[in-house]
């Protein structure tokens, strides 16, 4: 097979790729799309496709009355978009466990769509959790002929190894680091070992902050370097499939798709409205092409691209909202959130040639950084107590080749609470 990407800013030379195609999907919360029009669903898919994403994993909760209508619209939209695949991801936690018969009926209803993803010639199906229902899967596979890659992360690799004969592969939800360390591939390696040769779907997420007391959720995980660091790990680790968590889970602040106000869960508006993440997608063609070709030498940057992210409120500008760093409910030590969500701007500069990168907060001093190699360069710039609009530039040969501005860092926080979600901008 020949891969040829000819896009706005990366050019990938012809390469022969391995027999099994690699895929990148994004986790799509159907419940948050209940009010989207067919055109909006289609637009989400077109945006994902432009970012080199192969399709969506459609998260469906069994008690949600809108599920079937959205699924029908989504499959129809994907058929119109073309070369964009979907598969079902049964959520066993949000609305409780799915009855076996409904799982079988739902898979069979959509598996004939031309937009359904087939893996090893079987319709791929996944889950969010469902560890109380591991014994349903022999029956589900028999009743549908599906390729089952559940996320049973809470089982842990050892217990999963005992039930892996029930399924065809595994998807891990373990995408975030505990404490200050970068997320390592240790757990991915454990899961690969536990699958014993069956395909592994690796999670990649850019961020995590949730404060939804009605669901007893109020914590954050370190996200500063996740989007760049984790994709570098994907490049080296070369998993069978990647799943981005998520496209539109606004309540947990890890969306990379557009914000539709109707999809924001109650209570999350404060930290989601005004916090676009779309520019994170601008890094995806580069990272996905790197992963799929397994050779960065084949990728040439054809447009200087500068993506930056930061929190809008310095850590002392309001209450911390009683948010903990780490998730104590999962047995992790509670940390001061300020230690995991630092007052810093993070910058990813994709440059054609070595360049100077400039960053400024308000009317403060200009920070000069050196992007020493063509391709990806990452930086961090502490707030240093400054507030105001942010400005960025890439300079080369005494010429400005890229310019960008970002929203003001401000001590005025909505409802008096520090917003621990990121804003993302780009040129
Ligand atoms: C899908 O991709 C194939 C191969 O790249 C191409 O020939 C075909 O035209 C595409 N179809 C659509 C609907 O974009
Ligand atoms: C995975 O298995 C290999 C081979 O048995 C072993 O060397 C390695 O330590 C295991 N990795 C993890 C993280 O368990
Ligand atoms: C995490 O990795 C990034 C590079 O991806 C590095 O700059 C940073 O220092 C690392 N953080 C820690 C705590 O090791
Ligand atoms: C939190 O804010 C204080 C006051 O501006 C600052 O000195 C400190 O560096 C910040 N902490 C972190 C971890 O960024
Ligand atoms: C910051 O940017 C906004 C939007 O572009 C603009 O309205 C505002 O005047 C700027 N503030 C300062 C202090 O430059």
Automatic annotation (TrEMBL):
Pfam families: Glyco_hydro_71 (PF03659). One of its GO terms (molecular function) is glucan endo-1,3-alpha-glucosidase activity. Keywords: Signal. It comes from the Eukaryota. Residues 1-26 form the signal peptide. The keyword Signal applies. CDD domains: GH71. InterPro entries: Glyco_hydro_71 (IPR005197). The keyword Signal applies. This is Alpha-1,3-glucanase.
């Amino acid at each position: 097979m020949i891969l040829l990407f000819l896009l706005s800013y990366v050019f990938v030379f012809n390469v022969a790729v391995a027999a099994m195609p690699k895929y990148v999907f994004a986790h799509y919360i159907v419940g948050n799309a209940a009010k989207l029009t067919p055109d909006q669903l289609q637009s989400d898919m077109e945006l994902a496709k432009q970012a080199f994403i192969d399709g969506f994993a459609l998260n469906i909760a069994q008690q949600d009355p809108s599920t079937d209508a959205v699924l029908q619209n989504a499959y129809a939209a994907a058929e119109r978009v073309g070369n964009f695949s979907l598969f079902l991801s049964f959520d066993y936690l949000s609305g409780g466990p799915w009855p076996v018969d409904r799982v079988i009926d739902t898979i069979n209803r959509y598996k004939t769509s031309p937009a359904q993803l087939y893996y090893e010639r079987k319709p791929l199906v996944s889950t969010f959790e469902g560890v109380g229902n591991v014994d349903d899967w022999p029956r589900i596979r028999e009743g549908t002929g599906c390729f089952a890659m559940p996320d049973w992360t809470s089982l842990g690799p050892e217990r999963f190894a005992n039930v892996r004969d029930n399924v065809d592969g595994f998807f891990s939800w373990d995408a975030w680091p505990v404490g200050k360390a970068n997320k390592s591939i240790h757990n991915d390696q454990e899961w690969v070992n536990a699958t014993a040769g069956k395909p592994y779907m690796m999670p990649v997420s850019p961020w995590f902050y949730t404060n939804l007391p009605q669901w007893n959720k109020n914590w954050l995980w370190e996200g500063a370097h996740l989007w760049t660091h984790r994709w570098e790990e994907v490049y080296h680790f070369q998993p069978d499939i990647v799943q981005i968590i998520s496209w539109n889970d606004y309540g947990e602040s890890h969306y990379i798709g557009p914000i539709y106000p109707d999809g924001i869960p109650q209570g999350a508006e404060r930290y989601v409205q005004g916090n676009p993440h779309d520019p994170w997608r601008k890094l995806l063609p580069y990272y996905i092409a790197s992963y799929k070709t397994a050779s960065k030498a084949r990728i040439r940057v054809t447009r200087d691209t500068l993506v930056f992210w930061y929190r809008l409120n310095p850590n002392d500008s309001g209450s911390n909202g009683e948010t903990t760093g780490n998730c104590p409910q999962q047995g992790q030590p509670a940390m001061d959130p300020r230690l995991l969500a630092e007052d810093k701007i993070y910058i990813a500069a994709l440059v054609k040639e070595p360049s100077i990168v400039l960053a400024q907060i308000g009317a403060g001093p200009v920070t000069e950084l050196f992007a020493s190699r063509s391709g990806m360069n990452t930086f961090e710039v502490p707030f240093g107590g400054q507030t105001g609009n942010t400005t960025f530039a890439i300079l080369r040969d005494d010429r400005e080749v890229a310019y960008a501005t970002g929203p003001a860092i401000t001590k005025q926080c909505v409802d008096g609470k520090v917003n621990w979600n990121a804003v993302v901008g780009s040129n």
